[in-house]
Input
Amino acid sequence: MFGMFKSRPQLSQAERFAQATQLQLTWWRFRKHRVAMVSGVIVALFYLVALSADFLATTDPHATDSRTSYIAPQPVHFFEDDGSFRPYVNGLKGVRDPKTFKIVYTPDPQRHVQVDFLAPGYPYTFLGISMTTHLFALRNPERGDGIFILGTDQLGRDIWSRLMVATRVSLTIGLVGVSISLFLGVLLGGVSAFYGGMVDTVIQRVIEVIRSMPTIPLWLGLAAALPNDWSVTQVYFSITVIISLLAWTDLARVVRGKFLALREEEFVMAAELAGASSGRIIFRHMLPSFLSHIIAAVSLALPAMIISETSLSFLGLGLRPPAISWGILLQDAQSIQSLALAPWLLSAAVPVILVILAFNFLGDGLRDAADPYG
Amino acid sequence: MQNRRTFLGYGAAAMAAAPAGSALAQAVQASGSVTQSGLVGKLEGPIPAGGPIPATFQEAPQLAELVKAGKLPPVASRIPSEPMVIKPVESVGKYGGTWRRAFIGPSDGENGNRIMASDKLLFWDFTGSKIVPCVAKGHEISADGKITTLFLRKGMKWSDGHPFTADDFVFWYEDMYLNKDIVPGPIADMSAGGKPGKLVKIDETTVQFVFENPYFLFPSMLAGDTLIGGGQATRQSNGNSYAGYAPAHYLKQFMPKYSSEAEANKKAKDAGYESWVRLLHVRKDWELNPELPTLGPWKTVTPINTPTWSMERNPFYYAVDTAGNQLPYMDKVVMTLAENIEVVNLKAMAGELDLQERHIDLQKLPVILDNRDRGKYDVHLDLAFNGADTTLHVNMDFRGDDVIGKLLGTADFRRALSMGIDRDQLNETFWLGLATPGSSAPAESMPESPGPEWRKKWSTLDVAAANKLLDGLGLTKKDSEGYRLRPDNGKRVVIELLAVKAFMDWPKHAEMIAQHWRKIGIYGDVKEAERGLAFGRLLKSDHHIFVWTNGGTELLYLYSSWALPTDVASGVYGIEHAKWYASNGTQGTKPTDPKMLEALELFRSAAAKQEGERNKIAQEIWKIMVDQQFTIGTCGQSPALMGVRMASRRLGNIPGRTCIAQHCRTPGSSRPETWFYKA
Amino acid sequence: MVDPILSIRDLHTEFVANEGIIRAVDGVSFDVFQGRTLGVVGESGCGKSVTARSILGIVEKPGRVTGGQILLRPETGGEAVDLLQLGPKAMRAIRGPEIALVFQEPMASFSQYYTIGNQIMEGIRLHLKLSARAARDRAIELLDMVGVPQPARRVDEYPFQLSGGLRQRVMIAMALACDPRVLIADEPTTALDVTTQAQILDLLRELQQKQGLALILITHDMGVIAEMAHDVAVMYLGRAVETGPVSEIFTAPKHPYTRALLRSIPTVMAKPRTRLPTIEGSIPHPSNRPAGCAYNPRCLELIDDLCRVQEPPETGMAGRRIRCFLHGGRP
Amino acid sequence: MITFIVRRLLLGLFTVWLISMLAFAIIQLPPGDFVDSYIANLAAGGAAVSADEANAMRKLYGMGQPIYVQYGKWIVRVVVGDFGESMEWRRPVSEVIGDRIWLTLLLSFAALLVTWGLALPIGIFSAVRQYSVADYIFTLVGFIGIAVPNFLLALIILYAAFRYLGLSVGGLFSAEYALAPWTWDKVKDLSWHLPLPAMILALSGTAQLIRIMRANLLDELRKPYVVTARAKGLSELRTVLKYPVRAALNPFASNIAYLFPYLVSGSIIISIVLGLPTVGPLLVRALIAQDVYLGGAIVLLLGVLTVIGTFISDLVLMWVDPRLRHQMD
Output
């Protein structure tokens, strides 16, 4: 009954819809989904950060110094005492209390260390070019000075700077991982659905086996198998592959499901009758028509990837220091003393939660948009 | 009679109370900057052979019950006619209570072994400087130093009530130690001047260790945490088969000699093990086998490989307090399995553990202090005497890569690495400033210390000097990031730092050290590994540098594993060298480094010397070691390893400060059997 | 003339959609009498079904009844109650015992997870307060009544085990479970093949006579009306454009739309091989109903300056009403 | 019906077989072998193992033989219930796991209950009250549940519980009950320790199930049979609960099978953080220490459990979906 009132408005724009591809349709519906839009923007921002991590970092994320150990987040003052706009941070004096053994930092009101915009800092390479320019940097800092807006860790390393670099690592892992599992998923899911029969059964069985195994043990097993003497980058990529090797099944199921649904659709029949090669049918006709579902599935798969990396690193089987990833930062935050004396180490959890939220909302929006009643 | 016996007790002590010992005693009392925290107490402890044998004996209520029920012989006949009389720290305590403790898994056997330390043949007093009676009521060493005699306690019994006699020593020597299936090869402890010694039964309560060469060190070996002197709990668990004695009446049933190869193996198969050797290893392991007769204050009820490792009092324990109460006071020890040390520390802070020093993390001290009243515990800081809790043990026989191997084998390279380390930074960051930076040489107060200058030599930050040394080695080419390049392939000089997250977070220490090395252009590559796997690599000696403590080396002769390649169970300095030393040159390969050879020869010669001379030799060895930087020390003499002691306020007889050292079997030397619940 | 059991007066039902308010039902009025069949006819989308749901008060969001009256005369006689004034609880007491509904898609209108017995008994137990046993007997009895073979066995079967025809019979049995006075059949036969259609219609007629039901038969098929209905309400774009006894409507249709509808049914009298005339153009969307008479864009006899500007009022006497300037109401 | 069950069983067995091979392969991947790590562990404890003994052990464990032979030896023994001996725990694997597998199951099952107990009502609510404030709140909470890594949550709660509530931390029993025989008090003690980890474990699963339930129900609510029910004069609540919810349960039920391994996985990390005596920490140890037989047994066991889970969920599915049931006959 009120289905009819639902269908009418489409009639009124029938012409537009007639020409619109599935993707455009999705996009139109997606734009209505405000939360998802915002999430999309957030995700974009995150990848921007990933791209310019070193530029955004204020101090060398690896440089240790006991004099800056466990500093609580420090404010940046924007106006000099005379009221002029000259951002600065106070110098800090740290003293260890002989009774409590905590280091007490007191800002030195006399020492104002200028914060410069687009100023030279520690050297890094961006796209192969070695640079020293950072978004913010201190003007001739002394040892122990720094812009510690998120505080420092036990080894006196600036959390903010580490967070920036970690973002790059963790997000790219997610991306690379998801593209691998996407490839596997679409390929196997598609093949499985298109040929059906024996092929289908076999692939489905494989998927069932993989899915019916608790993933963590698998990851652990595979990760534990990595040679101990591998370099950070080697580990990095193997971890990515490991994670994605197990993550493709869900994608494969989505693809297969949509695929089967589409097989029955007229235009595929038509194509088959017209004698188009199966490959052509799959990639020319069918893939585009559920691209949107795939995009949705992917954006829902990404957070899983990121959590996986984090968990593995947390268990000490993923990336290992001196590599910096969200997982590793959280590993630092996992000790009692961190929680009790330096709770700000937990700030590494914020981007994790944020980006995963964003991806989920994004994915949800995309899925709703892809098929409103799905 | 009475007098003579006690004299023997005291006599043995007197004999070992050598000048150096007292020096150590003073040392121990000496105070560092730590003391202003008010957490470092007075070094004190119970005194074994602390008085005449009481006329009457009392026992724990539940044992009295059993005696009434006729299930147990009366206390007087359970304890030896010459029991060990222990004078508690504060007062005679009262019976009852369960000691709640935490352990972190089946590989954490030491957690329990150390509180069973009173099954050692001889032991050290609470200062860790004086040999006192233990299982043996006394000992004598012949004037030529070739024969050491042990006097056992008449009427002493195993925890199952079976008599403990010289035959248990003979059984161990002939049927276990000399059996290649059980003990692969002879151990250095049992040989003098390269000639193996033997064990002889004189009478039921007297045994002799007889050597062809002088072995004045031997009594100390029996008292130390050595293969021969470690005691049954420690040295016959986890695949070991040493300790000098064993419960013959129980273990014979598992040995082919007393049945037949086939029968013994069948027994094993039925029990689910592949061979009688594996079965024996399990059955003679007190951590695993509740039935195993032992001599310690408690015995296992539920084994270490269950979620709770629990023990109950040994009704035949051989020690009483000065009032004649049979020890221990506490009925049970219950160790709960904590899957990680964070949980151990949390439990301790929540007051769920009554006394815990093992796995308590110095890093958490501020939090621990904050929670004292909530958890109703006191915190004691016990300072150690070893040179460095974090020591870089350099592999002197690395063959995986000629260039690296050559560098590691070069003194100047090691010196440069050492001078490239900013020890004050490490101290502040990881020891809360409580440690003493310096070389790997023991505390200046130790009798074996080569002297203050050797604590500093090559062991203070000097980037310029370090760089000069490295340049001198021809490592002058650097890459864009300032790292030095190898002469052969122009790649970075990468030094791997193999580190385990164990008693300290050594991977993190290594991370910081690697950062310091940036300034001298050496790329330190931290390799974190699980303990078992790391030691696996050590056995193959395919590591560059292993980061670990050198705890125990403060008494070099008793525990040299973390100083020199003498231990075949550890290839940390080159497994081939260790084999060469242990086998007296018949196996393995001879070290090429003349200085290493010199050190080893000195070490070998020392066993035959009297204590005073021994200490001088030790000092010589340390001078070589520091000058050569075979082991690169960072910070030590701290409470980091088992030195943060959290003790429930309900407990009595808890020393203000205990000796933290391998040979003291912390907390063994403060005699847990004398602790009790005040309320 | 007897009072109607149910009379709809100027009923308005609106849906709030993205493109604004849609008047699905826009002032419908008609009467339903005991023992008589009212045929509500019109092209799909004219608001027939919504009217039916409005009567039962089960219009779903975003729709809501915004005006008019639904007057139900109590069985005991006396003042008629306006269902729109009733609270939800009272309204639930109406659904089933007073007014029941038969749907067009028997398959989708059953839950596949319960036996038909279960789904029939539910209403019985709720309204007639019968025991499970009694309700079951009643259900079997009902199935028997609607001509389901082996009712005792069928009662435990699931909808998907039945043929389309049987399903519709069961649907009817379910509707009759609490012997309602008014039965609304919403396109009861559209989903069925021709022969089954006939059977179902016969069933409905028979039941109506047996039980003196007031039947509202909603359909787009003038043929069905011809053989079933006593009275007709022709709906166009949410309004009843012409109502009256079936005889009059068929013999003397007044509204151009009615005529158009009638022209589109095949008759035996028609010469062979003549094309069936169809109505030009399609129903405009309710959201953009044309000014003036809603039918004017398709009307063959419209009066230009009038029908495009003004809405024709409802004229005529009781039982025969019409909205068209051709038949009065001209200013 | 029977044929269906039998077919499912055979399928399950096949899956188990694949899992067993996978499990064994994975455990075999790390460099070095069981004996290496056995010796290394002894070395860490200061003991040496003779080359003869090492070789003897290698022979006993059939090492050095091709992997399929080793697998053969292993699986044959497994079939008769002999999982071999755990190197690190120095006792038969079956015993080592025995203590913990039940607690793992208990924890996972408790989490399962929590998950369902929360996901069902909330999912239904958000669907019925779609786009209501509460719906948005639940959605947000749900997503946060998905977004917060549960080990992190565990850690924070662990500390907070200790710091602010003074709650007992870690483990599933208080020390005094840990080794006590099963008594009513011990059960009570357990029931004190269980909820926290169960909830932490359940959180993300719950969040996801809420999403699933909501989506399913939204579909079902649009179906005509809902109108039918209303037309019968059923109350709204009854209508929703009896018809659409029942229908929506269907995909929900088929989800159990995959929820379970998911929970088991989660329980591993959580158990490590909270120090729970489940198979989780055991497995991680086994893998890190290359305790071949223990690790293999656990992975296999977990796999089998999930296959059983799948099988059960199939039966449940048949129970909730008459159509399936009748296709069988």
About this structure: The CA atoms of residues 224 and 261 of chain D lie 36 Å apart. Chain D is about 80% helix and 0% strand.
